[in-house]
Amino acid sequence: MSFFSNYTGEFIAGLTTISWSICVFPFTEAARRLGPSSVNHFRLVLALVIVTLITIFAFSFSLTQLFTIPSWNNWFWLGISGFVGLTLGDYFGFTTYAILGTRIGSVFNTLAPGAALLLGFLILDERLNWVGLTGISISVAGIIWLTLNKKETAELPDHGHGNIKKGILYGILAAICQGAGLVLYKKGINANPNDQMVPIHAAWIRLFSAAFLIYLITFIRGNFQTVTRPFREDHKGGVRYAIAGTIFGPVIGVTLAGYSIANVEVGVSQTIFSLIPVLVLPIGYIFYKERITVMASLGALVAIAGVIILIWRDAIIQHLF
Questions:
Q1: What pLDDT digit, counting tens, does each position of 278-291 carry?
Q2: What is the pTM of this model?
């Protein structure tokens, strides 16, 4: 019980990573069938509806309170977080998975801790000791080793969503948006001193803002019919994959991420989140029969070792000095 109390944020971050690792697969299938933009529109509305019902019935919020309890500062920072992380970031991410696939596309999660650390330092004044930074570096190195393989990249099939260069660029942008979105999330949830928001309420504001802004932009650009047609017509049976991805991604994953970030530094949570490529390996074997090589297994072990160092950073410092 004491261990869980001391490492609540890290434990919940681990559960978040499992949930997000699962959602990668149905979202990849949905993006290839419906298109990344259509999936992004569909899952934001569905997630908003589900989280609204959970917040009202499980946490006893009224619909009015969802809008009125948060301050202007909460709405401002969480709204930006939702747009950056969920509207922009996930669109880039879906496109990356549609082009590069789950295993190679997931490598770009390793770039998110750097973005989270930099913005956490600039916006939240968060600090990590050198042992924590070493753990992050080892974890990132292991994941890059695990997933980046030139031979695999050369053999990727063309699913009609863009070339490999576009997939790489969008993967980088997705990671930056993900790291930035989580930092802005923590800024928003703590916008009022001594009055931290309930994380699921903060997740609801992120989803509401992201859904509102993406549909507003779509209406202004006159693309509503084009963007929504694939999921309205259930093109190639992609809707069921989008529903599954939504449950494990923006519903379970985003909510758990909020609880993790509320209890630990953003850089720590984001590094644990970046272990998605490690978990994608066994899941990929189950779903796609992807072979797990010795090199991939060693990369996974290195990545896990980095996270262990990160979690135990303070204890390591105490024993060294």
A1: 888 788 777 767 66
A2: 0.82
